[in-house]
Amino acid sequence: MKQNKIYNQLDDVVAEIFARVGKHLVLAAPLGIGKPNRLLNALYLQVKAQPETASLTLYTALSLDIPSAKNWLQQRFLAPFVARHFGVNYPVLAYVQDREQGALAANVRVHEFYFSPGSQMANPVAQQNYICQNYTHVARDLADAGVNVIVQQVARRGERVSLGSNPDVTLDLIERLGKAQQPCLVVAVVNPQMPYLSGEAERSINEFDLLLDDGGAGDQLYALPREAISATDHAIGLYASSLVKDGGTLQVGIGALSDAIANALITRHQHNADYQAALSLLAPTSEERALSLRIGGTSPFVAGLYGATEIVMDSFMHLRKAGVLVRQVYDNIALQKLLDDDQIRTPLRDEDTALLIGAGIIESPLNLACVQRLQSLGLLPLTAKLQGERLVLNDEVSLGLDLAEPDNIAQLSRLLTGQSLQGGRYLEGAFFLGSKPFYQWLGALAGDEWRGINMQRVSQVNELYGGQEMLDRVQRKQARFFNSCMLHTLLGAAASDGIEDGRVVSGVGGQYNFVAMAHALDDGRSVIMLRASRVQDGRAVSNIRWQYGHVTIPRHLRDIVITEYGIADLRGQCDEEVIKRLLAISDARFHAELLASAKAAGKLAADFEPPALWSRNLPARVAPLAELPAFSRYPFGSDFDALELRLIEGLSRLQARFQSPVSAALLILRSLLPARGSADVHQCLARLELTRPKSLREWFAARMLARLL
């Protein structure tokens, strides 16, 4: 047990850290919202002020920063939103701000293994200090790096705290350092706004050397603005949802594609006629329908889904509220098999007692371990105890321990019949990150809803081989692992985290773990999702390439790939068939180029001609989805108000026009002509302070926006 000290002043904790460790900090901080920003800022600024005598090496990931504008017009749009959404006193990370401005202190190094996507593409310092590693290897590598301080933002209830937002690496790292007898100061900072979650994340305050509980002034949780879901994203989500098996397991990442999957699953469950109509609109092929029938489904859920995911975010909240995320798992292999095979049900029936005995869950004669097991499952009261040769429930009810006696079995069956199993989980994860409504939902959970979420270490969530492989295999049946990539090659490799010149867009994170796990599970499937094309420098380019100079997922792990144009099942297929199946879901505008490359390499017969059906793979094919109410741009709501959403539409159009010199010139010319502005256009311009332009730049911006709106 650590010599715990509790403080109510930030400066005292900072002083204590330097007093115990010295002036050379090798510090580990969790990714995302697990960072105690104010403490990190205080440590960074103190080291920065002592360039000759102090140093800081920080290991972390996903250093979140409030959105910043790329130009003056975006700044006018963003400033009021940022003030409203993040608050005027949000503690931005000082090292992030300095690094962004090229002014990171010379005696400070920041190593991250995952960037906020795209945020560090133009930052050489961040790129040079990036560490490429699987999420599950981070604790091992940090222990080897000689970490001497761990800081963590926590929730507190009396003498207990919850690492709910980030038990992921912290638990593994503390355990590794302890086994190596490597001294390390573990510091917790209480944030009253942090939801208190259970599972392995729940710890005693005595596991920390220092704990700061100062009321959390200014410690607003970083909340992601909810994203829009395009028709393209909805199409991908619809295809993905048809591969999910009722009674199975779900893992999804974060972003619009994940929200699209959740929306499609909810529509499938609650409004199945609308769901079937949307699928019909996409006109899946007979092969895609057969795959769905074999490994997925399109009917409403009966058994529901269990979530086993690295990141817990809004999608799981929506699925839980909609009655989809309801499959419960228990830490007992025999019991889990009985439930999954529908041999027993909850509440228990009279005949279920014999099945529990046959599976060894109830032992004869009854013993202490068995009684405790039944109590943990909610089948016996906590007051039940063994006395002599009998199990005593209260002053009036008891039974013999020998279940070879029919009377004892009959009496036990009467006690168990009608009892509902407790202690099950519907979701496990390693960290959470999401919107304000999501944090509010987590914070309000109670009872079985609260106990049903198990936040735990990433080595358990992201792998099968954490010490309970057989149990994980039973719990994670029919697992579907959905992850996205940026580019995909025709031979089956995915580029998800970087580009071919070596620059890192985000990081590997846990994607490789989940792809590998899908292949390790007998009935698991890995599904890589991507948009078939994108606009770059004003022109459309394919996201499916013949080859690419960077790989995140190697082609020998190819499985299922989804674009807005369909599903390609690549598992076990030869290279020629893989190429054909990926061409069938790629953008038709690039078929000729891709075919030529494949034929030149001898991977496709020279006389192969693409079926006429493939020519339908154009953006117009999925556009009608946008007209369906269930597949709107913001099915789960938005953090922008109606006026801001209107402005986003106009600003997006403006940005798109200026990606092409010709379209930009035409827009500028048209803005010289008089235009009649409606009341809502006037409101939009007022929101950007453009109703009375003060310069030629503002005048042109106002006229162009008015025309586009």
Automatic annotation (TrEMBL):
Tree of life domain: Bacteria
Keyword Hydrolase: yes
Protein name as it appears in the record: Acetyl-CoA hydrolase/transferase C-terminal domain-containing protein
An example Gene Ontology molecular-function term: hydrolase activity
Classification via Pfam families: AcetylCoA_hyd_C (PF13336)
Annotated source species: Simiduia curdlanivorans
Membrane spanning stretches: none
Domain Acetyl-CoA hydrolase/transferase C-terminal: 434-597
UniProt KW keywords: Hydrolase
